Amino acid sequence: MEGTPLLSLVIWLPIVAGVLVLATGGDRNAPYARLVALIGAVAGLVVALPLYTAFDPMNAGMQFVERKPWIEMFNVHYYVGVDGISMLFLLLNSFTTVLVVIAGWKVIEKKVAQYMAAFLFMSGLMNGVFAALDGVLFYVFWEAMLIPMFLIIGVWGGPNRVYASIKFFLYTLLGSLLMLVAFIYLYNKSGGSFSIQDYYGLPLTMTEQVLIFLAFFTAFAVKVPMWPVHTWLPDAHVEAPTGGSVVLAAIMLKIGAYGFLRFSLPITPDASHHLAGFMIALSLIAVVYIGLVALVQADMKKLIAYSSISHMGFVTLGIFLFNAFGMEGALVQMISHGFISGALFLCVGVLYDRMHSRQIADYGGVVNRMPKFAAFFMLFAMANSGLPATSGFVGEFMVIMGTIKVNFWYAFLAASTLIFGAAYTLWMFKRVVFGAVANEEVEKLEDVSVREFLVLAVLAVAVLAMGLYPLPFTEVMHASVNNLLHHVAQSKLY
Amino acid sequence: MIVPMPNLMVALPEIFVLVMACVILLVDLWVKENRFIAYALTQMTLLFAAWLTLGSFHRQVEFSFSHMFVADAISDTLKLMTYVAVSVTLVYARAYIGLRGLYRGEFFVLALFAMLGMMVMISANHFLVLYLGLELLSLSLYAMVAMKRDSPQATEAAMKYFILGALASGLLLYGMSLIYGATGSLYNNEVALAIMQGVESKALLAMGVVFVVAGLAFKLGAAPFHMWVPDVYHGSPTAVTLFLGTAPKLAAFAFTMRLLIEGLQGSVADWQGMLVVLSVVSMLVGNLAAIAQTNIKRMLAYSTISHMGFMLLGILSGALNGYGAAMFYVVTYVLMSLGAFGMILLLSRRGFEAEHLNDFKGLNQRSPWHAFLMLLLMFSLAGVPPTVGFYAKLAVLQAALQAGFFGLVVVAVLLSVVGAFYYLRVVKLMYFDEPLDNSPIEPQADMQLLLSANGLGVLLLGILPQPLMALCTYAIQHSL
Hints:
The complex is a heterodimer. Chain A is 73% helix and 3% strand. By secondary structure, chain A is mainly α. Chain A has a two-stranded antiparallel sheet with strand order 1-2. In chain A, helix 1 runs antiparallel to helix 2 (30-53) and helix 4 runs antiparallel to helix 6 (146-156). By secondary structure, chain B is mostly helical. In chain B, a hairpin with a 4-residue loop joins strand 1 and strand 2. Chain B is globular. Chain B starts with 11 loop residues before the first helix and ends with a helix.
């Protein structure tokens, strides 16, 4: 395996597969499009696996590095590599893509090739985001992934899809362009380098750091999304097709939090400390306030969307505690939320495909007709509320432990999520699944098909495995997290 | 007195184009029934002119006609781009003008004369030669806009264009005469030298600069001197809009470089502030007004205004890398607008003018390939990677930031978010909506091929922008 450009394969294989899927042509050839897409997605996952098996957990630096000159005029390199922080996300992303392709197998009947290709393109581009070590390369992947998502929401989405897709695009673009200005500033300041690692050692004054931090903040906070710039997410989630919601929740939101870890903290450590209180406050508002908002939602997808924002508040909280418990907890929470939110959106998708309604009020007594489905749904609902032995518990517990070390009252507020989370998730679950059969349409429901069962079962195993034995996930991140914390503790002022 | 014979070789492409324009005019007189001959001759002229320019590519600066005419790397590069732009324009336009009674020899002759004007502008080292080229270009364009005689819209557009263009020319000439008064010369390099050595009347010079910049802004279509742009773009037959919206931008860039950088570099403090205002107002007006348009030609006209504002960011940085960035910006802009107007021509057919935004509805269902090309072009105009429009913005922003225009850069990126909206709207119409009519889209093979190359070129240059960037920087560095 020495010398194989592994990361390039992980990034470009799905994109090439996407082109092949498009080449199958119109909906006459839809079966071929589906098949090619599945092969492409599985191949993408297979080539991503060696990233884990060949990863050296003792090494805190970048691994699988590839570096080639790309745009000499601006000293831009095709520079990719992964460390303990980013590696797991490439796996999670490749894994999710397979599930999404399978989940959209029957449901999507219009423009199948374009749908499948859009997800494959997005998968490759998001892998690129997590692997890029050059500012311009990162930015290119970061922006480019908006295009397929924009189309996915807009073409295959719900009734209000146009509004949601344009809001999604413009919101994100606004943040990213300010980030671009920060990159260019750093490029000029560093004497002509776009390499992210060169920025780590670059001394900056406090004013510069705060401005750069805020520029990055607009980009990443929109993406996470943090309160109060979260309003695009419920719209996007509600209108997106199931696959779009899954990718959005499982991967795309994580990119914002990843950005904080890769850029904000190491490039502007003093500003990060300086503004930590502000970040923690926003995170706690997200956890508590958005948790309450979730409680009153009548639309299942909207409820899960708000629950995502609340859970991502936990992630940003953990990041800005500056201790190992908080940061690793945040990372674990990100991976686990990737599984759980993806699974919950798939569950809603299963119901929606049958009833064409996402309103909680239209359901009731689903368990009588769909017992297998109800069992899966229950597991994921429990995981979402942070039940021990599921992956949801591990991350939240670690972050709360980290928070207690900093301030008891922060931890107190953060821990309230265990109550709110359980309240909104289980209450929704109760209204949808339990009780007497609500109406004739519920009466006609059929239980999950083999295809749906397979997808949900894989996710259920992942959620339980991570909950019972999180070590394989945490051991690869130790070295990198400690290295990052060490770096952030040192001032870059001059 | 014996006047020495000027070195004609330096101006060989210009002379050749002039001769061929006259030949085509004559040929067209005799061969009335077959217009294809005029078309083919024009394309051959462009090809041969490109061969001439390439063959004598100037790595060093060379003067002729008693220093009034200059050939250098920047002029040769821009001329080559101009040939390409005009050639592509004619390919796109052929089917359209054929169906509308404009497929006449005059169209091609006027196009060649306009191009000759651009070439003279690109190669001028003297204010009056610049003016000469500008007028040759403008007069040809006025006539082209008015070629569809029986269309009141086109006539109105031509009239507006003519009157406002004449006003701008007046401003420009007045400014030039003031500069002549202040420095005693009209040669670019002598004006520069005089300013460097210090002029007696700073106020006179500054007045001259003000008028010159105003005239330039008119010709570039920068706000607040942009009034003619939407009306002319809208009123002209689309093929003419395509012509006047693309290649002349290259000439306008050269014009700006020759006047402001080569001639008036010494008064950078005077014109920099003005360009800042022009740039911000252009981006503001262009982007905001474009949102309100329902006609795609008008929308693209406002988009041009905002792009010119963005391009000015590179020039006002007052540094070599900024000029290189601005040149890259103009070249990529021309490439993108060629494609965008080409798409409008593609959707037009006999008796139907595609100029409403709604004509793009459901294009993805009518023809996925063309919708995809238009998608690339729109995202490129919006500056979203991986298309080339992003690198154009990146290069210009980098130069402006290096020159210390921090606030300006932030304003520019915020306004380009506003701009992204109306480009996204086109994508939305193509992909999210149902088509209004289902008439088949069947372009001729040459147009189909070029349009595909044009759209994919935007993507390819976005993945590998290095060669074009390096070419622009090379041209600037070896000329200034």
